[in-house]
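Board notes (copied after class):
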Amino acid sequence: MENIRERIYLAALLHDIGKFYQRADQGSVRTSEYLNEHCKDESSFCPLYAGRYTHKHVLWTAQFIEDFAPVFKNLLRNEKETSLSSRDSLQGLAAGHHLAAEQLSEWGRIIKEADCLSSGMDRSSNEALRDATDEMETAWDAFKRKRMVSVLETINPKQVRTNVEKKDWSHLPVHKMELTKTCFPCPSFETSPDYETLWKDFKGEFKFIQANTYRAFSETLLSLLLKYTSCVPASTIHFPDVSLYDHLKTTAALAVCLYDYQMEKGKGRPPFLLIGADFSGIQSYIYQIVSTYASKNLKGRSFYLRILSDAVVRYLLKELRLFQANVIYNSGGGFYLLAPNTEFVRSQLEKAIQTIEKRFFEAHGTTLFVAIDSIELTKEALMHKGDESLGQVWGKLFVKRDRKKSTKFAFLIETGYDSFFEPFMQGGDTRRDSITGEEFLPGEPIIEKEDLSLKAITNGQIEMGRKLRETNLIVVKEGEPLPYWKSEVQISPAQLGFTYYFLNNADLEEMKDRLCASADKVSVITLNGKNGNCDFLRTMDGINNIYGFEFYGGNETDMRNIPTFEEMCKNENFSRMGVLRMDVDNLGNIFQNGIAPERATLSRFAALSRSFDFFFSGYLNTIWRETDPDRSFIVYSGGDDVFIVASWEVAIKLAERIKEDFKLFACENPAFSLSGGIAIIPAKFPIMKGAEESAEEEMLAKSHIIYNVREECGCEKNAISFMEMPLNWKWEYPAVKHLKERMCEMLKTDKLPKSFLSKLMNHYANAKIVKHKITNFKTYWMLTYDLSRMKERSDEGVKELIACCIHEVCDQNKGTLGGEPLRTDYHALELWTLAARWAELEYRKDKE
């Protein structure tokens, strides 16, 4: 019985590895060059239907475990000596999951059920067996030429399209995970997928996983599966929009939950708990900076929140005795876990939430809070048999979690009312942190650096921000910090029992001998990899720890020599900073209603979350690097949103590029759109106020609707706002941009008087526009008189532009802007004035 729980977890991670292996094999069972005679025995693991064996991929799963017996030797060294039957061996558990329940052991039935729950269907039903047989009746190797469909293509919140109606699905190339556009979906390919090469690369790295504990081995394997199987379809019989990685991961998580539930003999309640968390106070915490040294602290402060969230997840996994596969999603200030609905977990979760609440208050007062709650999840919801769909369960968890925000620190208030409401600030001449403005507590150490007085946490965040530029490895130590790394940058977020070290390969080389003594307690995480290629196993060399990789937006910024915002936006003629915020529209509705109830599976939800994080945490680095990295600075990017500080015109370029690339990444699915706001402010403007203004601009974009075309093209949100004017990305933004460029071109050649811009702005200010209608009617004749005189003194090109302006403003013609077709609710004067203000900014920037 020793390690059976860990063996079940590993077997579940490997149960369908044969699907990957089989696709790389050129032959059938009979002609395979990889299967030995023992594994060619179809009766050993394949189910029998209508006189034929089906689901033959399990033979390659069995072969894989035999192929790599040397890799498993430390885990399997007592396998032959155990009294357990062969069905409970790692091979038996992994490869036997399609056999009838009566042919399986108690533990084998757990993996079989977890596989069904992950896929949302009974794999042993006559329908499933018939489908597998029907596939073999066509071209026996057709599945080897099929590619995975992007899950983003299938999202349909309004459920107005069906799979039958949709013809040109966007397929993913077969690839190792990299941060390039070559990983984007593509409608068609000239060649068949090269599973063989991908498999060879996978095998080449798999053999380097050397661990003598199940946890270290399995958690490292999970990251390797992410790298190689995130574009391999889990099924080609049914719609192939779920990756093998997401299926293996959720199957492993479900198997662990079922095992714990069964061991506790839980009855009378659903077997699963879905745990959700959301951080509040993030924005105010990041931008609570009062000095000109904001740029030195922002990156470290932002990354601190990332590792704070990670520490909370790790703490919960430790307290609930769960694995990384139980983390459905962790990014963007929120996370979701799948746990067994046992008395142990319910009790431990309550205690853990109280501890987290206490540690947060001790570290950050009332500034930061994480709302954590859970909801029961039934097997019926996962199998589409109950009254509730998985999306509805998810929606109820959103509501419960958000209610927690209205009762922040309830436990602390209840247990320590008096101390909780004691004054936090002393006022008067009390010394304050030079960057955050926070008061030093009596007896608190003050760090003097570069004429600054800093709190320890502020100094740590600054040093962490500087170190990030040369960091490609993060080491996370569970328990007591490593005493021999005191000189390194190290952070212990909220004292939750995890210490984070920021290193490079040279640092790790010096420490690997000492790391060997910390098995299962140390995680070595490669950050983004070299050019995003995720080669995380290159750091191993026999070190017995957990290895993985993560994406992070903006770690290539040179934090050692990062300029101030004023220096970043410096221009001889005109300096303005752009503060950009963007995120995905209607994300809650997408999660609750985007997946049809009959197709809502845990693996699809996991794939959807992971897709967002790949784009915003990972690929956004590519966008930033290819746009203007010297004049822009990613403060935060992850989950489904981004915050960037840049020179104002670079901020607009970045917003446009992010929108265009996300559209391609999402297969041009109209269900997905991005809205954002850009605050254009002086470079010395306080970043805290700039963040507030960009949030206000983003809210304008989120509330923007073009009413007269809403039914036709869905023009809600999907907008960018700057200078307090939201523009729909599809209709209004291109038209205003085109008009702005015409103005700029004429200004550069001195054909268009600069006074044209100021006259437009003056008439706009006097027009008293209410609900896109001019209420000061004198504006019409005054603008006509003013601009007509200017037109008489201009050449033909400018005359045409001015005449167009008069016509569109005074005739209230909403069908065009600058002569180009346009759909909008704005009055023409509003859009002409915005184009003029934008052109003026560029003119001032470029003027010699």
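Comment from the instructor: The longest strand covers residues 272-280. The two ends are 79 Å apart (CA to CA).
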